[in-house]
Design brief:
Layout lengths: L1 E5 L9 H16 L4 E5 L17 E3 L7 H15 L4 E4 L12 E4 L17 H13 L2 E4 L2 H11 L6 E3 L13 H11 L5 E5 L8 H11 L7 E5 L14 E4 L4 H10 L2 E4 L8 H8 L4 E4 L2 H7 L4 E3 L4 H13 L1 H16 L3 H15 L4
Parallel strand pairs: 1-2, 1-4, 2-3, 4-5, 5-6, 6-7, 8-9, 8-11, 9-10, 11-12, 12-13
Helix pairs in contact: 1-12, 5-7, 6-10, 8-11
Length: about 375
C-alpha cells in the first residue's frame, strides 16, 4: 500500500500534531515494511524525526514549491497521481480539494469552532474549509470517543464514517539514566521538588489556574517548586519566585529528564482532543493530576486524579494530598504506568491502517 501523510504539522516540532505525524509514520512503516509511507507538504522547513532515517520505505519529500493557495487544489492532487498513492491521510484538518485518491482525515478536536479562549489563534482557515472537506474524506479519525461524539453531533456526520483511534506515549521520551537525568535537571535549573506542566501556548491550557493552585499549596509546603514547559511559559517567570522555572522550549531528552524527576504532572487544560502529555507522563512513572475534560478523562483511563479546571482550590487540595501521602502517590504512579502500557503507536498504526483498508474496500 502506498500511503501519503500530510507532513505540514512538522513545521512545529514541539507541537502535539508533529508528534502525531512522526510517530504514526514511524509505526506504519515499521508495522508493514512492504508499504510505502510518503510524507508530503508544500512547506520547505520541516522537522524530521531521526528515527525515520533508517526506514527505506519512508519517503521524505522536500517542500513542493507550490504556493499554499494552490497546494490543496492543484499541487497535492498532482503529487498523489504522480506517486500513485493509494490513500491520503490528512493529519491536520484537511484533505485535497480534488478527490483524486481516497482520503482519510484526522479531526483532532473541535477547538477551531469553540469560543475564546478555547479557540486557538489562526484557526479561521480551518473553520472555513474543514466542514466542506469532511464531506470529501471517506473516513474521519478522532483521537477519542469523546471527540467522535462531538464531531458527529456538530457536523452531522454518519456515525459509521467516524472512528476513534487513541494516541500513545512516545519512546522518544524514555527516561535517561538517573545520573544523566539529574545533570540535565540541574543544568535547566529545576528545583529539587516540583510539579511539572507541559503546554503553555494558549489560554485553554489554563496554566494560571495551576500557578494559583501551586501558590496555595506552598502555604503548607514551602519547598514545593513548579516547572512549566512550552511556548509562552516565559510569561510566568514574572511570578518572581526562584521555585518557579519557566522554559519556552525543551528537547525530548530534557523533557524526559524533567518528567522522571517530577513529584507530579499537572494537566489543567480546559479542552483537549486527547491529552498526549498525560499518557507520556504516565509512561515516565509520574503521578498525574488532570482536568475533568471528557477527552482527557478518556485518555487517562481511570489512572489520574481529576479536578474541576476552574477551581484552583480543588487542584491545590489534590496537590497537598499527593505531596503528603507517599503511598497514595505511589499507587497513582503505578496506575498510570499500567495505563500507559495499554497504549502504543504500533496499535495506533494498526487501527489506522485498518481504516485505510476499509476506505480501499479491502476488508
Amino acid at each position: 500500500m502506498r500511503i501519503a501523510l500530510d507532513a505540514t504539522p512538522l513545521v512545529e516540532p514541539a507541537g502535539g500534531l508533529a508528534r502525531y505525524v512522526a510517530e504514526l509514520a514511524l509505526a506504519l512503516a515499521q508495522n508493514q515494511p512492504d508499504d510505502e509511507v510518503h510524507l508530503l507538504s508544500d512547506q520547505t522547513e520541516l522537522w524530521w524525526d531521526p528515527r525515520l532515517e533508517s526506514l527505506p520505505n519512508v519517503r521524505r519529500e522536500p517542500g513542493s514549491g507550490w504556493a499554499r493557495s494552490k497546494w490543496w487544489s492543484l499541487g497535492l492532487p498532482l503529487e498523489l497521481r504522480r506517486r500513485r498513492i493509494d490513500v491520503f491521510h490528512g493529519t491536520d484538518f484537511a484533505v485535497p480539494y480534488v478527490p483524486v485518491t481516497p482520503s482519510v482525515m484526522t479531526l483532532h478536536d473541535l477547538s477551531p469552532w469553540k469560543p475564546e479562549p478555547l479557540r486557538p489563534p489562526g484557526s479561521e482557515r480551518v473553520r472555513r474549509r474543514t466542514p466542506r472537506l469532511l464531506r470529501l474524506a471517506r473516513r474521519v479519525i478522532t483521537p477519542t470517543e469523546a471527540i467522535r461524539r462531538e464531531a458527529i453531533a456538530a457536523f452531522g456526520l454518519a456515525p459509521e464514517r467516524v472512528q476513534a483511534v487513541h494516541h500513545a506515549p512516545s519512546e522518544a521520551l524514555a527516561a535517561p539514566e538517573p545520573a544523566r537525568a539529574g545533570a540535565l535537571r540541574a543544568a535547566l535549573g529545576a528545583p529539587p521538588r516540583y510539579l511539572l506542566a507541559i503546554g503553555a501556548g494558549n489560554e485553554r491550557k489554563n496554566i494560571p489556574c495551576l500557578v494559583e493552585a501551586w501558590k496555595k499549596a506552598r502555604r503548607s509546603d514551602a519547598e514545593l517548586g513548579l516547572v512549566i514547559v512550552g511556548a509562552g511559559a516565559g510569561r510566568y517567570a514574572a511570578e518572581g519566585c526562584a521555585a518557579l522555572l519557566a522554559l519556552e522550549l525543551a528537547d525530548d531528552e530534557q523533557t524526559a529528564a524533567l518528567l522522571s524527576g517530577a513529584l507530579a504532572f499537572v494537566y489543567p487544560s480546559l479542552y483537549e482532543g486527547f491529552g498526549l502529555p498525560v499518557v507520556e507522563a504516565m509512561r515516565s512513572g509520574v503521578p498525574v493530576l488532570a482536568s475533568q475534560d471528557p477527552a482527557v478523562v478518556e485518555a487517562a483511563g481511570g489512572a489520574a486524579w481529576h479536578f474541576d479546571a476552574r477551581s484552583s482550590d480543588e487542584l491545590a487540595g489534590l496537590i497537598g494530598k499527593l505531596a503528603s501521602d507517599p503511598a497514595a502517590a505511589e499507587s497513582l504512579r503505578m496506575q498510570g504506568y499500567r495505563r500507559a502500557a495499554e497504549l502504543s503507536w504500533r496499535k495506533t498504526a494498526e487501527a489506522t491502517r485498518k481504516i485505510y483498508e476499509q476506505v480501499l474496500g479491502r476488508v
